[in-house]
Write a structure and sequence with these properties.
Elements (H helix, E strand, L loop, with lengths): L10 E5 L4 H12 L3 E5 L3 H13 L3 E4 L9 H10 L7 E4 L15 H29 L3 E5 L12 H20 L7 E6 L6 H6 L11 H12 L7 E4 L2
Helix pairs in contact: 1-2, 1-7, 3-4, 4-5
């Protein structure tokens, strides 16, 4: 392990790794020496991220998965367990933003997709990878959340409700594993960041006025080097 590659020898899994904060985080983890497993639905976008990782001398593995498929996560876990004995880092970045609308007009199909990706898939990931995280001895779970999960806002209920449940799920898991196997959990709110999701929510905003995903990614890598307590929460300014 070197000062420039503090995550040398570690295996990391990043969901939502095809774009935005997930892609930037995958690249930052690879630069820090981790072997990164990239998962998302779109193969071509994952390949572009892998090319960027290889360009900086990093290593990665593409694992296309649709988190709306009930067996997708279990297949991914089985494939990874056949290659690696442990998982050192799990970054849960994948998320779905339904159309912003009053509670009384929430689209049931979109709401269902948000529940599936933002909540049900998170529980499936924790259940499937818990054994590998514990075998790491220093397993770390970083869940990307949103301020609307703890501070409800008009028109954001469909997304905010799933993020509130997401936070509760991760915080409960953090307490359950606090004294078992060295796993630690952190919730990180990226704040205003230049992503496709942000553009969808704020179509009139100038992207140049908010920070790039790399800022969040660098903070995640720095956090992984810290001795943070499980259940840690922070917002990237």
């Amino acid at each position: 392990m070197s000062e420039n590659r503090p995550l040398e020898g570690r295996v990391a899994l990043v969901t939502g790794a095809s774009e935005g904060i997930g892609a930037a985080t995958a690249l930052a983890l690879a630069k820090a020496g981790a072997h990164v497993v990239l998962t998302a639905r779109t193969v071509k976008k994952l390949e572009a991220v892998e090319d960027a990782i290889h360009a900086v001398g990093g290593t990665s593995t593409i694992a296309p998965v649709d988190l709306t498929e009930s067996e997708g996560v279990s297949r991914l876990a089985s494939a990874m367990a056949s290659r690696w004995d442990k998982l050192d880092v799990l970054v849960i970045s994948a998320a779905y933003l339904p159309t912003l609308t009053p509670v009384t007009q929430i689209d049931a199909k979109q709401f269902g997709q948000a529940v599936t990706i933002n909540l049900l898939a998170t529980q499936a990931l924790l259940a499937a990878f818990d054994p590998m995280l514990k075998r790491s001895g220093q397993g770390r779970v970083i869940g990307l959340t949103s301020s609307v999960g703890s501070n409800p806002r008009p028109f954001w209920a469909a997304y905010g409700a799933t993020k509130a449940a997401f936070e509760s799920l991760l915080e409960s898991y953090a307490q359950e594993v606090e004294k078992i196997g060295g796993v630690r959990v952190a919730l990180l709110d990226p704040g205003a960041t230049r992503t496709a999701m942000r553009a969808k929510a704020y179509p009139g905003e100038d992207p140049a006025t908010v920070k790039e995903p790399a800022v969040v990614a660098d903070r995640i890598v720095a956090l992984l080097a810290e001795d943070f307590p499980t259940g840690h929460r922070e917002r990237v300014g």
